[in-house]
Design a protein that fits this description.
The chain is an alpha/beta fold and 337 residues long. The protein has helices at 12-24, 38-46, 57-62, 78-88, 102-115, 130-141, 165-183, 271-274, 276-291, 300-319; strands spanning 3-8, 28-34, 52-53, 68-71, 91-94, 120-122, 147-155, 188-194, 210-216, 221-227, 235-242, 246-248, 257-259, 262-264, 323-324. The longest helix has 20 residues, at 300-319. The radius of gyration is 20 Å and the shape is globular. 41% of the residues are buried. It binds nicotinamide-adenine-dinucleotide (NAD) and (2R,3S,4s,5R,6S)-2,3,4,5,6-pentahydroxycyclohexanone. (2R,3S,4s,5R,6S)-2,3,4,5,6-pentahydroxycyclohexanone (ISE) binds next to helix 7. Nicotinamide-adenine-dinucleotide (NAD) binds at residues 8-14, 34-37, 40, 57, 72-75, 77, 95-96, 123, 125, 171, 271.
Length: 337
Amino acid sequence: MTLNVGVIGVGMIGQDHIRRLTDVLSGARVAAVTDVDLDRARTVADDLPGATLHPSGQDLIAAPGVDAVLVTSWGPTHEEYVLACIAAGKQVFCEKPLATTREACQRIVDAEVAAGRRLVMVGFMRRYDARYRAMKEAVTSGDIGAPLLMHASHRNPSVPSFFTSDMIINDSAVHDIDVARWMFDDEIAAVTVLKPRVSSKAAAGFDDPLVVLLEMTSGVLVDVEASVNAAYGYDIRGEVVCEDGTVELSESAGAIVKRAGHFSGRVPADWRERFARAFDTEFQAWIDAVTAGTTTGPSAWDGYAATVVCDAGLAALSSGQRIPVVLGERPDLYKEI
Ligand code: NAD
Ligand code: ISE
């Protein structure tokens, strides 16, 4: 059986996921597309045999030829489409963020709980990265003892001019927030944000880099150095320090060359290069689960929790204070992180 996927939002990542669904993965095809920029959607549809063009996301979701939906439009538009998918009983893969406010995420969680089954998967693709998975395996095996703290770096080479300091937290570090919850099977209890010396490459009034300190409820501390003007490449690092040893993300998936007393390897250009395989694995898992009549992966609760922690991070950034995170009761539908 082939899963007919409708895509809402055909910008940068939407087109990358369309390529993935069309040329790389098995069991799905892109059956429908739409975008608020209809000309862009038409151009994309023209390259997809048999794909229909829709005037709006709502029209696409209602289309009988669409079995499941991929939402890759701008963050503030996600809520409307995810809620419409839940109302239509269609499985939906929503790129991060699930929604941009706590209230919007709560409405999605409430709608899914009322539907009585999971219909939403959120695109936190790091959970599917082989290097992060190996790290989690080492932590959960117990072989290196109980975890105490985690160091993480999330360095972007550059960002578009519309990027702000807030986005270092809710657009970039949101991935590290999800990793922390998933790595330690735990919730985040409080957030503090520190501002190191500002990079001379940062635009005026822009705090970059930031250090985001996450306190897990277990007491584990996670420090995330996040920046968006690193220039030299896209550099994602991590180390978990445990009682009997440590585990680090391996530095490179490619070859390390040693020559003339030096060694070198490639630094990825961007998140597309660094996480290409993780995106493939994530989507194949979604296709397989949806085809089997269920869903998988990061849930609406995970999307809700990440947004609530980001909100605390923004409050910590503007106030300079330690901000507690109050999530509320996790519904039974979402038993595991
Ligand atoms: P983009 O600006 O390149 O593309 C977004 C597209 O959505 C545009 O074509 C825009 O016209 C369209 N759009 C906007 N409002 C719409 C609406 N109401 N209905 C239909 N289409 C609409 O942005 P992008 O970089 O592709 O990011 C899209 C989403 O993917 C964002 O939520 C972003 O955070 C997420 N993202 C995730 C990752 C990741 O690593 N998982 C990486 C990049 C982007
Ligand atoms: C982008 O939107 C992503 O989600 C990338 O994974 C992240 O590394 C980058 O900082 C974001 O801007």
